[in-house]
Amino acid sequence: MYGHRLVHVAAVEGQAAELPCDVSAPVVGDAVRLVLWYYGTEGTIYTYDARGRSGGASGSHWASGALGGDRLHFHVDGTTASLRISAVSRADGGVYRCRVDFVESPTQNSRVNLSVIVPPQRLEVLDSSDNRLKEDTIGPHRLGSSVNITCAAFDGSPPPNVTWWRGGTRLGGPTHSASDGSVRSPLRLGPLSRADHGARLTCMAAFHPFSSALTTSAVIRLFLPPESATIHGPAGGRVVAGQPVTLTCQVTGSEPAPVISWRLGSQPAPGARQQPSADGNGTVSELTFTPEVFDQGRPVTCSAANPSAGGPPVEDILPLHVQYPPSVSLTLRPERPLREGQTARLFCSVRAEPAVTQVRWKHEGLWLPELSPGSAETALNGSSELTLANVRANVSGNYTCQATSPLGTVQSQPVTLRVQYVPMCVSDTPTVLEAARGDSLNVSCHVASFPKPLRFRWSFNSSDALIPQREFSSSLVNGSTLSYTPQLPSEFGTLLCWATNELGEQRAPCAYLVQPADVPDPPSDCVIISRTETALVVRCQPGFDGGSRQMFRMEVCGTSGGHQRNVTSASARLRASGLEPGQQYHLSVYAVNRHGSSAAATLVASTAADERDAQQHHGSVSELLQLTPILGVLIGLVTALVLTAAILVGTRRCRARPAAKENPQEVSHVQLVNNLSDLGSMEEKHDPDLIPQKTECIDPEEKHMIERLRNSRFPPPPARFGDSSTLSPSETRLLSPSETHLLSPSETGLLSPTSRTLPRPERVSSCGTQTAPLSPRGGHKSTTLQLMRPSRRRSSSSLQQVPSVSGGHLLTKF
């Protein structure tokens, strides 16, 4: 039972308040019929009327507008009931009375005192000058400082309890009321240490156990000097010269961020970049630079200081261990040119970190796999010295040394070792040259020589057969050029060249083998050795083969025209078959090699009319071929007498001929031919044959004849002409191009205009059809030439060489 006693109820402004009312009836079973609420002088503020309700039905509710009817709500629950006031304000405080009327029991009254608690409107942290802290920050202050701060609560009712807290620890002393109505709690901090930096202090104002306290906080900020500086980079400070490297310096413990500087040795290192560390625990500075070889051992220093906090800077030092690829330099001692047999030393100086693992040598870009006898290699602290003893010309040239380390391979600049030596051929093998008779060759003799050559000399087939200097030209670039024109088969051979410099003449000459490369001479002395009704057999004397293997080809044409047969043979014996009996044919015989075809040797022959005619021809040939022993002896004696007389006449003419100047064009030719004779052995010089071996004093035409007799494969020399009668057809034979070339101008002039042969681009067969060109030099038409026999008077002009009529051939017989 509440009776008339006073019940105290507290509520925080803005929250709800529950005012209790005693509705329990003194008589058991009695029921509430009416509940009235009164507040101060406002009268009835709320009514609950259950009159006229039965069966436990709820009564009606009514609220006046004095306190705001929508804020009041009465709730009955058995014997307990309460009036709920929402969003109480300071004006809602005071004493409330509750009247309860029952059906049978007497009326009951109860009183409730509502206390409205008003929280303070402001809670501030003040500094020692009663100024509110900016950004709720205490400081910044230096280490060791002491600070006074105050927490003040304004406009609270009743006065709140104000306290300081750091984490879960209460700080400071009791509170007091100030003259401005605020409640204050002072706090003294200090001396401040590094541990106080960043600490958060909380001020709390508590009003009622059922309401949350009002709080505010502030953070202590200090000026802190850096605690440490650490350089992060390659392990052990190992860097590579010429390659950029980045070093990082991390500074911790500084507030605010420190000023970080770098030094390389004693010199500032600019260009560093500074930023907070990724973990927020300090500041990072990055320095990128390119070390050089001379930075070896120099210290890199990172220094950090905080001018606001004071105190000395902190530093970290990293000594540099600079690694670099090999640095190679090569020197030669002595530097002057050496002579063969002397000693040269090459010194390869190497600087490297780490040390080199290998030093190798090159000569003219090629590795020196092993040292020559008398040479040696010495290693000195990674460097190397190469000693070349008893030097020769082949060690001349550029030398380099190459050093290898874990950082790479470097090659030195080349140095040139120059060894003086007598000239030598550029090529060790003879040079083969091909030419046709009458072709001019420019033969270049190239030698290696140091110092350069002073002069050259040339010879043919022998070191003694010198060629006059006017026949060749020399230059200052280690070379000489000889203009050489072979005219005769004997003038094909080996040209030799020597060069001489200050040290002497070269030991082995340079050799140039001149080989014939011409179309072959036409066959000569072609005769019919056999004929039948359907076949003709021709045998010819082969001419000069032009320096290559030759074949023989015969074209058979009827006199009425038309090409009948082509016959080819490896020998000069050719057989044409399948012919018509008793018919006349034109036979053209050619010699062919890889350079082309010769001119034709032509015959006119007829096949046998019947079998009896063929037998008579065979018989006549057999009679011609049969020689009795007596006839053979007579022919031999006559031949010996003729040769003996020719030798005696030639000897007398040579002795009787006065010494005369030789034509400059004849000198080299005669001298070369003379030296050919000197190449013979001692046995040949004393050969008792009728053909003499030495021909210095023999008439040129006789000498030419002897040369032809010595070399039987070449045709004999041109005939000596006597009276002015024309040679009969039976006395004719086919001349070779070389023999036509040897005719004197007066003899060539005896050829009738119609019988001369001129070059033509295509060869015309005897059958009147065009065939392929004879050779790259052009083919020629074969023609029978009539010679007027001149007087036997010797003409000096017959010794002069004249240009050959290209492709011209003579049919004559000597």
Keywords:
814 residues; mainly beta; five-stranded mixed beta sheet; 41% strand; disordered C terminus
Low-confidence stretches: 618-628, 656-702, 708-764, 769-814
Distance between the termini: 185 Å
Strand content: 35-45%
Task: From the alpha carbons, calculate the radius of gyration and give it in angstroms.
Answer: 69 Å
Number of β-strand runs: 56
**Strand arrangement, major sheet:** 1-9-8-3-4-5
Count of runs of 4 or more consecutive helical residues:
7
Average pLDDT score: 76
**Shape field:** elongated
Major sheet attributes = 6 strands, mixed
Q: Work out the helicity level.
A: 10-25%
Q: Given the helix and strand composition, which structural class is it?
A: mainly beta
